[in-house]
Design brief:
The structure is a single chain. The chain is an all-alpha fold. It has one domain. The chain is 72% helix and 0% strand. The longest helix has 23 residues. The structure holds zinc ion. The site of zinc ion has 7 residues, from helix 1 and helix 3.
Length: 85
């Protein structure tokens, strides 16, 4: 399998955030992210958000990432990977 590119990651990110991807796909996304500096920067904020959401889910009902938060993350990701132009 060829190396994933930022825009491929981006295309799957929404499903990734929703936990809808199979584990092996999550692994591929994560391994790309850790070897790619724009993605590293992005994922720092992403991980904070995910931790926050998981903590909320433990205390309350399991809930998907709020749509506005997800849109914000996707926008900042697109910008950091230069996909905005
Ligand atoms: Zn990347």
């Amino acid at each position: 399998m060829t190396k994933l590119e930022c825009r491929q990651i981006f295309a799957m990110l929404s499903e990734y955030l929703d936990g809808e991807l199979p584990p092996e796909m999550c692994d591929q996304i994560e391994s790309h992210i850790h070897g790619c500096s724009p993605c590293v920067e992005f994922v720092k904020s992403l991980e904070t958000t995910i931790r926050y959401c998981r903590r909320m889910a433990l205390e309350h009902q399991p809930a998907p990432l709020p749509e506005n938060l997800k849109a914000e993350l996707l926008a900042s990701y697109r910008k950091s990977c230069g996909l905005d132009s």
